[in-house]
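To: structure subgroup
Subject: Chain for Friday's discussion

All,

I'm putting the inputs and outputs inline so they're searchable in the archive.
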Amino acid sequence: MNAVVAVENKKGERLELTKDPDYIIGQIDGLGPPTAQINTSKMVGYDGETFISSTAGSKPLDIYIYFQGDVEDSRIRLYKYIHSKEYLKVYYQNSHRDVYIEGYVQDIKIDHFADMQMAQVSLLCPDPYFKNIVEQIDGGSQIIDEFTFEFTCDEGESFEFGTMMEITEIVALNRGEITNGITFRMRMNGIVTDPKIFNRATGESFGISYTFQAGDVVTISTRVGNKSVKLMRDAQEINIFNSIMPGSKWLQLDIGDNVFIFEAAAGQSFIELFIIHRDEYEGV
């Protein structure tokens, strides 16, 4: 196959299946888009049904691995990386995408008496989407250069090495196929009170009723199943979920350009906002 495939277990141990001479990938099922669950309601006296909602289910993924060389040794070595009921990350790279998907091993089927032994590794991926291997980071502070080397400096003279610009509007680009949650990270360079982030297109906002001090770092995760608001202060992590402002929305990253604006009741100029996300895809 033309793709590069690797697996990584919960310990971070990685097996390069397509680069290891002891293994050949025969087939992978589940590389396409996930199956959707469509919910409808039948209306008495009318033809057809009414659409209610739709969701994507979990993704089954099956990898067929043929053993080469010393078959017994290859099979036993595979067991060291892939364990039934355990977490497994699958990496997949082709000419267009470099992604991974996370799941749990449901079954490992092996016919020990076949002429050519093969392992069928079956995974269930609760999150059915493939994620880009590269994490995107937008925002922060912008520094404008004020001088370049070479230079001379007489006694008493001074030079500006750079000018810090305050950015209150950040554009984050989602090149993937899925609207997904993101991570906002705010670094406070002074006292900041009640910061709030807005999605300019939707008008939705997410705010925190809290007074922060210089050096604080706030991390907000809006991913479904992993929503959190945490403060890192003096090397100690504090859960400030209860400080979320009433009416706040868990802001999502739509496909294409997304513009986010931030403000604060006090100390807005002390905020550095970073937007962290990965593009996600239905299939490869």
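Points worth raising on Friday:
The longest strand covers residues 98-110.
The helical segments are 71-81.

D.
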